[in-house]
Specification:
Layout (H helix, E strand, L loop, with lengths): L9 H11 L7 H12 L1 H19 L8 H14 L4 H11 L1 H15 L23 E7 L6 E5 L6 E6 L4 H5 L7 E5 L2 E2 L5 H10 L2 E8 L14 E4 L25 E6 L5 E6 L8 E4 L1 H10 L1 H14 L12 H17 L6 E8 L9 E5 L5 H11 L4 E2 L4 E2 L14 E2 L2 H9 L3 E7 L2 E6 H9 L3 E5 L5 H4 L7 E7 L13 H28 L5 E5 L2 H17 L1 E5 H5 L1
Parallel strand pairs: 12-18, 12-19, 13-18, 14-15, 19-20
Antiparallel strand pairs: 1-6, 2-3, 4-5, 4-6, 7-8, 7-11, 8-9, 9-10, 11-21, 14-17, 16-17
């Protein structure tokens, strides 16, 4: 970086700093903001003025005395008693001139820095009249962005007051507009007897400089709580379609999975938030968690009907590695639906923090969830075969008899039915099911065994099992594996009865895979970190290895209780 001389001013230093800024992956928004501020014409003008004032402070003249007017008066008296000639008479006439006496008086005022006006004393018998309302005039500069404040009508007084200040907006940056201030005029247009909608329309049409006449709120300035944390959105939101939002322009649209920085929760109904990674510094309104849950509860009846239709068409059930029949899957699907109805969960927001695995931390559990046709097990076996020292699989438990070629603890943990059922009662299984009168399940201890060996455990699990695994101990990273779906081609030739049966079978299988993938995404997308579309086995395994490497290396947003607990 070039060396500046000691005489360089603040303007030159900032100009050089702007030229030295370099893009940084972690500071893109901050550097963009600094570059924009330093490039502002008004900001540079202020820096030049500051530099000139500093030069005046260092080099400006200091007064020789603070009483030039009194000195001029004393000189006039001395001259009157002295010899009388033309020069003396001319000097006395100059000292007596009003404009020269005013100059001396101004000099003394500046020298003494006594700029406060001298007011006459207040009479003792003055009657104090009722105090008038204080008024403040605020001038803001508004470009294309919203003003950053919402208004409402006071139900008791009918006055139009400021309801909230949006963080980072023009009103917030000014520091002059506060919640509770009563609005009287906008650009000399009286707002009395106007509705908030009409006033909002006036403000929306204003560009450039806006002058507001306000009466300060009586209540103390609201204490805004900063740093409310980050939330992962579990639903899509479009403020333009929200009839309840007080100002659609102030709303913040977001998509499911977006990370939101909540900067204010003072309003119980509408929070203020920013999207992480968004260059816009102004906060926007989003529905609060409690308000959104109430709305979802109101819509629950219709949602239940839609879920019921979706559940009838979907194909879920226990782990496909247990090879459940279609009938068994339908029975388990019905049980799952009944469980969901008993424990209704409204998806709004999830508090999150950033997490990166440290070298001494145990590896995160990797959960592979496969829709029908994905054949997750063959991917898992290929990954483990390529690197058995790094990856392993949790050994399932079963009550069936051990076959001749099987070994205890390798293919399965073979246990008695009584022991298995006792472990179910003690919640020692993350998932379990029954197949041909035999019980199968994955125990918590089998997962811990792999993690204690400092290996990465690859678990093939049902989507409904994910919730049981989302703990600070496992910190699961969930990958949804879907088959590459290609609709069966129509046969244009004459079809025999056998060909027709094959076609119907292919079409039925295709629809089953489509519905399975759609159902999992619809019901469990908020629990899934990555979606992998599986084409050929080699390419899919290569993509999975890339994902597994990133889990060990990169930072991720995880539930806050995983880190704080």
């Amino acid at each position: 970086m070039p060396v500046l001389s000691t005489a360089a001013g603040l303007h030159e230093i900032l100009a050089l700093l702007t030229a030295q800024l370099r893009p940084d992956a972690n500071l893109t928004a901050e550097i963009g903001f600094l570059t924009e501020v330093f490039s502002e014409h008004s900001f540079n003008s202020l820096m030049k003025i500051h530099q000139k004032l500093q030069q005046f402070v260092r080099q400006g003249p200091s007064p020789a005395l603070h009483s030039a007017a009194a000195l001029a008066e004393d000189i006039s008296e001395e001259l009157q008693s002295g010899p009388n000639n033309n020069d003396i008479r001319e000097l006395m006439q100059l000292l007596a001139k009003p404009h020269l006496q005013a100059l001396f008086s101004a000099h003394d005022t500046v020298a003494r820095k006594a700029f406060d006006p001298v007011l006459p004393p207040m009479p003792d018998d003055l009657e104090i009249e009722e105090e008038e309302e204080s008024m403040k005039i605020v001038r803001l500069v508004k470009n294309k962005e919203p003003l950053g404040a919402t208004i409402r009508m006071d139900e008791q007084t009918g006055a139009v007051v400021v309801a909230r200040i949006m963080r980072g907006g023009a009103a917030d940056r000014s520091g002059l507009v506060h919640v509770g201030d009563e609005l009287r005029e906008v650009n000399e247009i009286a707002v009395e007897h106007k509705t908030p909608e009409e006033i909002s329309q006036i403000l929306a049409q204003c560009q450039g400089s806006i002058t507001l006449k306000l009466i300060p709120g009586i209540k103390e300035e609201d204490q805004l709580n900063e740093g409310k944390g980050h939330m992962r959105a579990l639903f899509d939101y479009d403020p333009s379609e929200d009839k309840a939002i007080p100002c659609k322009e102030a709303g913040l649209p977001f998509r499911k999975g977006d990370i939101l920085q909540v900067v204010s929760q003072d309003d119980l109904v509408w929070w203020q938030a920013k999207r992480v990674g968004d260059a816009n510094l102004r906060a926007g309104l989003i529905p609060s968690k409690k308000f959104q849950e109430k709305r979802l509860a109101y819509r629950q009846k219709n949602a239940d009907l839609e879920q019921e239709e979706s559940s009838k068409r979907s194909s879920s059930g226990l782990r496909r590695s247990f090879r459940l029949s279609r009938k068994d899957r339908q029975v388990n699907e019905k049980e799952e639906k009944q469980t969901e109805q008993k424990d209704v969960e409204y998806l709004t927001y999830e508090e999150v923090v950033t997490y990166r695995r440290r070298p001494n931390d145990v590896h995160r559990l990797v959960v592979l969830v496969g829709s029908i046709g994905a054949k997750v097990n063959e991917m898992r076996q290929r990954i483990i075969a390529d690197n058995p020292n790094r990856y392993n699989v949790a050994v399932p438990s079963t009550t069936r008899q051990k076959k001749v070629h099987e070994r205890q603890g390798l293919e399965y943990h073979f246990v008695s039915k009584l022991s298995f059922e006792a472990d179910i009662q003690k919640n020692r299984f993350v998932e379990h099911g029954e197949y041909k009168d035999n019980l199968y399940g994955i125990s918590v201890d089998s997962i811990r065994t792999i993690m204690l060996k400092k290996k990465i455990c690859l678990l093939d699990a049902n989507p409904q099992t994910i919730k049981n695994l989302r703990t600070a101990e496992f910190k699961p990273y969930v990958i949804l594996v879907q088959p590459f779906l290609q609709e069966p081609k129509a046969n244009t030739t004459a079809e025999t009865s056998s060909n027709e049966n094959v076609k119907e079978l292919e079409e039925s299988k295709y629809q089953e895979m489509v519905q399975s993938a759609a159902y999992i995404e619809q019901q469990y997308s908020h629990l899934i970190d990555k979606v992998l579309v599986k084409g050929d086995l080699q390419t899919a395994c290569s993509e999975l290895k890339t994902i597994l490497d990133s889990i060990e290396r990169d930072s991720f947003w995880v539930p806050a209780n995983w880190v704080r607990s």
